[in-house]
Amino acid sequence: MIPAPAPLVVFDLDGTLLDTHADLVESLNHTIAILGLEPVSYDDLTHLVGQGARVMIERACRLRGHPLEGEALPALVERFVAHYAAGMPGHTQPYPGVVAAMDRLKSKGYRLAVCTNKMEKLALGLLEKLDLTGYFDAVTGGDTFEYRKPDARHLTGTITRAGGDISRTVMIGDSVNDIAVARNAAVPSIAVPFGYSDVPVSALSPDHIITHFNELTPELVETLMRDYAAKVAV
Ligand SMILES: O=C(O)COP(=O)(O)O
Ligand SMILES: [Mg+2]
After folding, report:
1. Example GO biological process term (predicted)?
2. Which atom of ligand 1 is nearest to the CA of 49?
3. pLDDT by residue (tens digit) across 14-65?
4. Are residues 167 and 143 in the same domain?
């Protein structure tokens, strides 16, 4: 009998694996301060984060009544990246229980990967500073490919790089892009409610919701993969 390929769990980064909110707010406010705009708050992040720094800055400026024109954006993105990269890891920390969950999965032979819309170099830098790089078989960012979440190819490309198999993969994330990319790639999804979603995650119709990483076990992942395969086969 051919052994089943190693299962793969793909994590979103901001708001799922790492609590990045304090540093995102700080660097974003540093960025827009040059335009004389009032700072944004943590609550604002739920509808600013999700499509990378560029879109976050654009949305924050619009929120503050200052839609960007013409060539203003690249310099602001540069200002954000310089500030954010210089401060890493700042206040950023893995969410409670996620490292133990990853240890649990790895001890059962699982592969792990990150699929984030954050710029690849920021994602890699942050994971490195937090000593987490060694957990992952692949880390892809919003600028790694020509496409990004919710485009299915961001997830399928991540699976390929991680040496995984699409029928043995689960995606876990905090926002609409994560649940949508999983659906688009025909992979089961798990949602976490503590990240940056502007709607309750149940409204995104993930295959499963966990409220703490204690619940992320090999048994749960196997069950989700099995149930999903059965559903697709009907
Ligand atoms: O930085 C962002 O805007 C999104 O990052 P995420 O895909 O890891 O949530
Ligand atoms: Mg996220």
Report:
1. glycolate biosynthetic process
2. 3
3. 999 999 999 999 999 999 999 999 999 999 999 899 989 999 999 999 999 9
4. yes
Instruction: Determine whether 165 is an active site residue.
Output: no
At 71-123, the pLDDT tens digits run: 899 999 999 999 999 999 999 999 999 999 999 999 999 999 999 999 999 99
Which helix or strand (DSSP H or E) is residue 8 part of? Answer: strand 8-11
Nearest alpha carbon to residue 7 among 170, 154, 188:
170
Amino acid identity of residue 161, one-letter, is R
Q: Tokens 């720094």, residue?
A: 53
Pocket of ligand 1 (CB under 6 A): 12-15, 49-52, 56, 116-118
Shared domain for 81 and 71, answered yes or no, is: yes
Looking at the CA of 196, which ligand is closest?
A: 2
The answer to whether residue 2 is domain-embedded is no
Closest CA to ligand 1's atom 9: 14
What is the pTM assigned to this prediction? 0.96
Annotated binding site for Mg(2+): 12, 14, 174
What region does 38 belong to: left with phi over 0, alpha with psi -120 to 50, or beta?
Answer: beta
Whether 119 maps to a domain, the answer reads yes
Residue 55 and residue 12 in one domain: no
Report which ligand 1 atom has the smallest distance to the Cα of 175. 9
